[in-house]
C-alpha cells in the first residue's frame, strides 16, 4: 500500500460495505485514493481519528461489544500505555517506518480508550483532549503564534517552563520538584529531579567533584556490604546510582538511554556465548567460566 493509502482509516461502515460486496479492504482503500486524486481532494486525517473513536465506542457498547474491552478501567490500562510507549521507542531504534506507524497507532488507541472511558463517566471526550493539547501548544509557543521573540532553543525551554508555572493548576505547586510523575522509570525521575535542583544552584562545580562523590558512595556501599547490612547496602546503592545520574547530566548523557543501550549490547554479547555453546554441542552450564570469558571478550570487541 502506498503512503497515501496508508493514511486512510476505514470506518465500521466501510468494513460492512466490503464484507457485503466481497471487496478486500486494501482494494477498497485504493479505490478511495484513486477517487480522491481524481477529485484533487486529500484524505481527511480527522476522519481517521473519528473512525477509531467510533470503533472504540462499539467495542465498549454493553450490547454486542467486546467482553474484554468492557472489563477495562483506567487502572487496568496503565500498563498498556507504558508497553505501547516503549514499543514506539523500539520502533524508532529499529528505523522501521512501517513498524513505527503500527506502534504509533497502538499508542493512539490507548489515548482513545482512556477518553472513551472518561466520556462514559461524563468527564471529558477525545475532542476535549485534542482541543486541550492544541490550545496548550499555541499558548506555550508565543514566539510562533504571537509576537514574543526568542534567541535559541534554550530560551524556548525557559519560556515554556515560565508559561507552564503560570498556568492554572500549576500555581499551587510549593516545590520545584512538584509535578514530576512518580510513575516515571527510576532513572528518568532521578534525572529530572537532578535537572530541577541545579537550576537553583544545588550543584557540583565540575564533573571531577561528582566523580569524587561516586567514589565516596562506592566506599560507603562496600562498608555496608562488609557489615552484612542488606537494607543499608540498598540505601547506599541508591545513593551511588543517583550520583551516577548526576555524572550523566554533567556529560549531557541520558542515563536511561545509556543503560538501555548497554543492556542491548550485553544481550548481543551473551547470545554469542549461547551460540558458542550450541556450536560445541553443550549447554551453557557445561562451559567453564574461562571459556565464557574468552567468548565474551570476543563478543565485546565485535559489539563495542
Secondary-structure map with pairings?
Elements: H1 3-6, H2 12-20, H3 25-38, H4 45-59, H5 67-71, H6 74-94, H7 97-120, H8 126-139, H9 142-145, H10 153-166, H11 186-198, H12 207-227, H13 230-250, H14 255-279, H15 289-302
Helix pairs in contact: 4-7, 6-7, 11-13, 12-13, 14-15
**Alpha-carbon Rg, integer:** 26 Å
What is the global morphology? extended
CATH topology of the domain at 179-253: Helix Hairpins
Helix/strand-derived category reads: mainly alpha
Highest CATH level, the class of the domain at 179-253: Mainly Alpha
| Major sheet size, sense and barrel closure | none
CATH architecture of the domain at 179-253: Orthogonal Bundle
Order of helices and strands: HHHHHHHHHHHHHHH
Number of strands: 0
Q: In terms of per-residue confidence, which ranges show pLDDT below 50 for 5 or more consecutive residues? A: none
Strand content: under 5%
What is the H level of CATH, i.e. the homologous superfamily of the domain at 179-253?
Answer: MazG-like
* Straight-line N-to-C gap: 38 Å
Helix coverage percent of residues? Answer: over 70%
How many helical stretches?
15
Mean pLDDT: 88
Summarize this entry quickly:
The protein is mainly alpha-helical.
What would you say this structure looks like, in words?
The chain has helices at residues 3-6, 12-20, 25-38, 45-59, 67-71, 74-94, 97-120, 126-139, 142-145, 153-166, 186-198, 207-227, 230-250, 255-279, 289-302. It is an all-alpha fold and 304 residues long. Among the domains are: 179-253, Orthogonal Bundle (Helix Hairpins), CATH 1.10.287; 256-302. The longest helix is centred in the C-terminal third of the chain and has 25 residues, at 255-279. The chain is extended and about 70 Å long.
